[in-house]
Structures are given as structure tokens and as C-alpha cells.
Amino acid sequence: QVQLKESGGGSVQAGGSLRLSCAASGATRLAYTMTWFRQAPGKEREGVAALFDYGYIMYADSVKDRFTISQDNAKKTLYLQMNSLNEQDSAMYYCAASPSHPVLPLHPSAYKYWGQGTQVTISS
User: Fold this and answer.
1) Which whole-number Å values give the CA distances from 99 to 9, 30, 31, 47, 104, in the listed order?
2) DSSP letters along 17-79, please?
3) What is the pLDDT of residues 37-52, one digit of tens each?
4) Per-residue pLDDT tens over the stretch 47-81
């Protein structure tokens, strides 16, 4: 069983930056695929950035060139560096893990393990 715990959320002004962390426990290694999702009130959960264990990375178009996903295997921690934040980035952010390489890595149905989320609020 894998447990995931996100941290690093908060409130920042538009144009600012945040770094989210997702610590994994209950596993000897990070899963094959680790992904960040977000969900704003009244909207569907959307994939933001996915990282395969062999280094493949996929970003949603809305965050390309602004967000960077990375991991530290020794610490079993996934990160999301978010720059040039805007109000549309406000959401609850979740990390998720899959024991495989999903065909659609940004689709939430592909993931078995989820954290409880960390809130990101961007003000103008």
C-alpha cells in the first residue's frame, strides 16, 4: 500500500511561484508513474504533469513552460515547481501514483493511489 502526502500549497499573488511536494511512504520506491492533478470548484479533476520512472514527462498544455515536475528517488518525493502563476491555476492539487505506465497519463482513472491534496490560491 502506498501513502501519498502533499505539501507546499498556499496563497500567492499572480506572477508568483510555489513548489509542491508529495512524499510517498509504504513503498520501497516511487511508483512507475507519478502525476500531479488539480481540481477547481465545479470543475473536473485534470492532469497537470506526469513523470514516468524512466524519465518520460508529459505536461498539460495549460502549464507547459511554467510548471516543472521532478522527483528525488532517495527521498521518495515528487515535486511540482510552479512559476508565473495565474488565477486559473487556483485549485486543490493532488499527487497520484500508478504501478504501471498509463496510456493516458493525465487521465485520473489511470491512478490507484492518491494523496489528500494541498490548496493553491492565486490572487490578482
Assistant:
1) 26, 9, 5, 17, 14
2) -EEEEEEEESSSS--SEEEEEEE-TTS--EEEEEEETTS-EEE-TTTTTTEEEEEETTTTEEE
3) 999 999 999 999 999 9
4) 999 999 999 999 999 999 999 999 998 889 999 99
Integer Cα distance of 107 and 12 in angstroms: 27
Question: What is d(CA 124, CA 120) in angstroms, rounded to the nearest whole number?
Answer: 13
- Give the long-range contacts of residues 99-106, CB within 8 A, separation 24 or more: 99/31, 99/32, 100/32, 100/33, 101/32, 101/33, 101/52, 102/33, 102/50, 105/33, 105/35, 105/47, 105/50, 105/52, 105/58, 106/35, 106/46, 106/47, 106/48, 106/50, 106/58, 106/60
Cell of 71: 522527483
Q: Which residues pair with 91 in a beta bridge?
A: 120
Q: CA 27, CA 3: separation in Å to the nearest integer? A: 8
